[in-house]
Amino acid sequence: MRLETRRATRLYLWVPAAILGPLGIYVVVAGTDWGRMDWGKWDWVALLVPSTALLLPPVLYLLTLPRYLRNHIPSNLPGPAGLNPGPFLLVLSVALYLPLMIWMAEESFRSLKLLRAVPLVLALWIFCACANQWLRGESPVPGAENRGPSRLLHRCLKMTSWFTPPPVLLLLGAILLAYSPWADYGAIGLLNGQETWITAEYGLGHDISAARIILKYLGPFGYGGSLLLAACTLVLLLVSKFSAGRLRIFRAAKVLGVATVFLAICSISDLYFSWLTFLTADSLPALRWIFFLLFFLHWLVPVFLAVSAKNGNQGAGRTQLALRTAVAFYTPLLLFDLAMTSFFLADAFFPCLFVGLQLLAWGYLQLAMLPQASQPGD
Question: Deepest of 25, 168, 239, 359, by most Cβ within 10 A of its Cβ?
Fold first, then answer.
């Protein structure tokens, strides 16, 4: 990795860590009335949610994810020993979001709560398997020093990836999105403008009129666009006969992939900062404008990465590095959103919409990360 590329990659991770970390400390200290808390159930929730949302991302940005991005070395150069980390740190970081997911599932639907949370836990595991591939880049196998449990964990993740290739992820995502209108009658109201998008009413749009106007139209646009992308993906899968090699050579797959990833990023950013606004609006109302600004700034990162990849001279390697950096940048936000999605388990509409769109985006990302040597007949 060239020096300027390494510095740019660090910047994309260090800047959000420097912002979210202090914000997390401020929210936990200033937003919690320590003198009045008796540390009952809801007091622990009031501490767990902002800590997970704002204090865990710096851990991933500074301690976990950079280790994987550092292994981006040109194929004609030998990599130093120990550069390729095992998957243990990645899986451990993802597992830190499980307590919040289970807690939210318990509050939203007490009966059979663990069974209802199983699909979301599986989504976390599938993400681990995908991220283990994406972040490793050209070095898919852990180093020789990573033996025992780490190597066994890597094999489990690799087997999961074998069972969930890009066509399977695309199919699962399209099925969930196609089911979402049937999961809730209000879905049709969102598309025709009769219903208000949830974050425009309770999230960023609750106290900020500009955000309310934007999200009022962005939410239904994203939902309608997701349904359209799911339908196009099903057609593309049939045309390609569910072959990842054939899918890769279709220009339409690249266009659909870019559109899907864009909507997935919009959904991740919208939900993440809306949850933060909702949770701190009463105790720290001034933070809502900071979250609103960060909401827009998180839209600009893919633009900067795309410009960086286009202006680079490393071909497909530069493009894949940009994709991997984007994955690292949005991973903490995505993990928090998946954990909080368990709050909506009593109604299948939102979990189907959010998880379906993310699976669709993961499928296209997996497709973009396939080795260039893949042929149509693969």
Answer: 359
Radius of gyration of the chain from its Cα atoms, rounded to whole angstroms:
20
- Secondary structure class of 96 (helix, strand, coil): coil
378/220 Cα distance (integer angstroms): 38
Q: How far is CA 49 from CA 96, 336, 357, in A?
A: 12, 9, 24
Please answer whether residues 312 and 250 qualify as being in contact, where contact means their C-beta atoms are separated by less than 8 angstroms. no
Q: Give the three-state DSSP class for 342.
A: helix
**What are the DSSP calls for 275-309, one per residue?**
HHHHHHTTT-TTHHHHHHHHHHHHHHHHHHHHHHH
For the purposes of burial, counting CB atoms within 10 Å of the CB of 176, is it exposed (0-12), middle (13-18) or buried (19 or more)? buried
In whole angstroms, give the CA distance from residue 32 to residue 374: 54
**For the whole model, what pTM was predicted?**
0.89
pLDDT digits (tens, 9 = 90+) for 267-288: 999 999 999 998 888 778 889 9
The residue type of 37 is M
The region of weakest confidence among 39-48, 60-69, 325-334 is 39-48
